[in-house]
Amino acid sequence: MDLGEVNHQRIKTNGIWLHVVEKGSGPLVLLLHGFPEFWYSWRHQITFLASHGYHAVAPDLRGCGDSDSPLSPSSYTVLHLAGDLVGLLDYFGEQQAFVVGHDWGAVLGWHLSLFRPDRVKGLIAMSTPYYPRDPAAKPIESFTGKFGDGLYISQFQEPGRAERAFARYDYLTVMKKFLLINKTDLLIAPGGMEIIDHLQTPAVLPPWITEEELQVYADKLEESGFTGPLNYYRAMDLNWELCAPWQGAKVTVPTKCIFGDKDVGFDSYGTREYVQGDTFKGLVPDLEVVILDGHHFINEERAHEVSQEIITFLQKLSVE
């Protein structure tokens, strides 16, 4: 698609350089991508938001795209990531921003809203709800205990393991396996199999993405590698330790959640029941939940509907 004129720049924040793409002027909207993506996942929303009077800023999060990629997984905690974003807000001279996140970008949006609600005017979280911290068990121990070593999160823990498995395929095939997931169950490989081998490569592309767009992802991942994005998973237990002071805390900023009804685990893992239930509403009191017909990468698959949901939310908060 034609993005028109966008501004690329590298910004020093929190001791690293982040690459950001921006377009438009007006209230700041941060667009935070997920795994295994970079700013390009917001190509549809960047132009849409700019044309509606907003300053759309889509960073490559640390470890991804053209941003710096620290080596240690311990440099990828939600505190590091939130610090990166506060630095971006300061760079642009904005006290507050609207925050839109998908997948790991949603995790980051939840935690920025938890840590610094004074800097978040409103949050839109896609595909990943806010889960309360379990005070009794670290997440990896809990996940592996429930689902075994075949769970993708468990397989991503050991440095080098997933990288070696991914390397058996070309980058375009790896991106197709992830971006075109149409499984609705959790991503769990059979015993003795790596998750990348378990994922299918569709023979026919869905209508919402082209071979050329997939190649953009593949080319960028070939440049940057997968270790940075995988380090987000490798920092999950450290996140659990560091977030202990926020045990039981609520996310109080105005929030809209957007989910695809065919997302991984949405029904089989109980996500639908959770996000429509009282526990989630208790943790996120100012909450609106929207469920669309679609899969995990809902901001791309349902680009127009998602853009409309974003703009409706931003406009509502702008007049309140």
UniProtKB/TrEMBL annotation:
<feature type="domain" description="AB hydrolase-1">
    <location>
        <begin position="27"/>
        <end position="302"/>
    </location>
</feature>
<comment type="subunit">
    <text>Homodimer.</text>
</comment>
<comment type="similarity">
    <text>Belongs to the AB hydrolase superfamily. Epoxide hydrolase family.</text>
</comment>
<dbReference type="GO" id="GO:0004301">
    <property type="term" value="F:epoxide hydrolase activity"/>
</dbReference>
<protein>
    <recommendedName>
        <fullName>soluble epoxide hydrolase</fullName>
        <ecNumber>3.3.2.10</ecNumber>
    </recommendedName>
</protein>
<keyword id="KW-0378">Hydrolase</keyword>
<dbReference type="InterPro" id="IPR000073">
    <property type="entry name" value="AB_hydrolase_1"/>
</dbReference>
<comment type="function">
    <text>Epoxide hydrolase involved in the biosynthesis of cucurbitacin and mogroside tetracyclic triterpene natural products (e.g. siamenoside I and mogrosides IV, V and VI). Cucurbitacins have cytotoxic properties and exhibit deterrent taste as a defense barrier against herbivores. Mogrosides are nonsugar highly oxygenated compounds used as high-intensity zero-calorie sweeteners; they also possess pharmacological properties such as regulating immunity, lowering blood sugar and lipid levels, protecting the liver, and acting as antioxidants and antitumor agents.</text>
</comment>
<comment type="pathway">
    <text>Secondary metabolite biosynthesis; terpenoid biosynthesis.</text>
</comment>
<dbReference type="Pfam" id="PF00561">
    <property type="entry name" value="Abhydrolase_1"/>
</dbReference>
<dbReference type="InterPro" id="IPR029058">
    <property type="entry name" value="AB_hydrolase_fold"/>
</dbReference>
<dbReference type="InterPro" id="IPR000639">
    <property type="entry name" value="Epox_hydrolase-like"/>
</dbReference>
